[in-house]
Design a protein that fits this description.
By secondary structure, the protein is of the alpha/beta class. The protein has three domains: 85 residues, Arginyl tRNA synthetase N-terminal domain (Gyrase A, domain 2); 129 residues, Isoleucyl-tRNA Synthetase, Domain 1, CATH 1.10.730; 197 residues, HUPs (Rossmann fold, 3-Layer(aba) Sandwich). The protein is 49% helix and 13% strand.
Amino acid sequence: MLDIELKLKDIICYAFKQNGVVVDKNSIAIERSKDKSHGDYASTIALQMSKTLHQPPRDIANNLVKYLQSDFIENVEVAGPGFINFFVKSDSLSSIVRTIIEQGDHYGEGNETHPEKINVEFVSANPTGDLHLGHARGAAIGDSICRLYKKAGYNVTREYYVNDAGNQINNLAKSIRVRYHHLLGDDSLIFPEDGYHGEDIINIAKLIVDDVGDKYLVDNDESFDYFKTQGTKLELAKLINDLKMFRVEFDVFTSELAIRKAGKIEKVLERLKPYTYLNEDALFLKTTSISDDKDRVLIKSNGDYTYLLPDIAYHQDKLERGFDKLIDCLGADHHGYIERMKSSLVMLGYKASNLDIELIQMVRLFKDGEEYKMSKRTGNAISMKELCEEVGIDAVRYFFVSRAASSHLDFDLNLASKMEASNPVYYAQYAHARLCAVLEKGKEYQLDLSCKNLGSEKEIALMKILVDFPKEVSQCAKQRTPYKMTNYIQKLATAIHEFYSECRIVDKNNVELTSSRLALSKASQIVMKNALDTIGVTAPEKM
């Protein structure tokens, strides 16, 4: 696979070696030249090494030039205070077209072996209601991180932690019980203060009535346990179904209740014993001894666990399953959670670096210039499902990952619905559809995979971006930055539109050039599809 930047770094290392100097390949900066007269790529390595070598950067650059030779380089020039500009042969650049077409859907996949096992836990919404916009953004970002990891060749597992124990599940059961009684004509039960009022609770109660009739009208432990178990099961099934619609699926579902029943909380408490102390009948964990700003309560004075204790047991469970790196995608309100959980894992004998936490900021919806909060259908906050119905899954997924997870996102419903270039999703998908149309138009021509006839400014610019895709995948995966992939997609879309507009792709009077340009079109179509797939967005053939 052609990786021009890597090759340039290699020959720069070789040139320094010929001058008796060893440099770290990773320290060499290679940039794409913005001005064509300055070449295709440039390096500032001579300026970087000036202090170390006690030489003027221009002298260093001139000493390197005679060794900066390769079969893919046309020319090398020293410019300004010591910039090294590289001019790449167009036929070297065009070899990427054959590579892309031969590899197809696999283009962009990493060649390196990544032995570490990565666990990404995301969404993990309580099974007590609909997925809101925070969950939806977490789903889009978490899933895109996993897609990028997989594309880059990492061993990644997607996990959902089911909070099926504790007060929220008790409140769910109480809410279902009241609705169940009401449906069967018994209005004696009062709705719980912390109950769930959603339409889904009524629907669950109806399903239970259809299934068991009035069997659980007797208010006892058996009926309450049934409402708890069945309610959790049905709510979780609904969430899984909505996530599948959103193109998000999980490899593993881990139950908090199962963690508790397996005695894993007691085992963790025993291991943490040297770091615990009692204060006013509550059990504290001395997290300040590692990196936290204050000690944390594990067991309240009334004997109830705080949410931290089962969470510690859950994280230990993941590490005991053989994962080397745990990544939690959590809401921005979990900022204080980071150090307390890292400290807890260190106390258990793990490294703080075994856990990384991605904090995901909230989403605000805007329509007609005003914030848009409430669903007209339910009167409650707009759910993920409703937003997808409003503007489409592609728009929701694209917009939700288009900014860094740590940045707030203002989602413009009007922009997301527009069928024009100002909408980045439409702009990217239309680039793909345009290429599909031109490939259909030119299907009678044989593709010239050598692309020997290509060399115009727009063709070269497009090929440079195609070359970058594997590197973009690798960097976005390592940095867990799917928003950078949307930046790449926009650059690629711009280059495709400019190539399409300025180069006559199908020309009956020039069959050879047509064959080369159709091959470039095919390669570009493949890369756009692959890039959109890394963020879970479709690549339509017609628009």
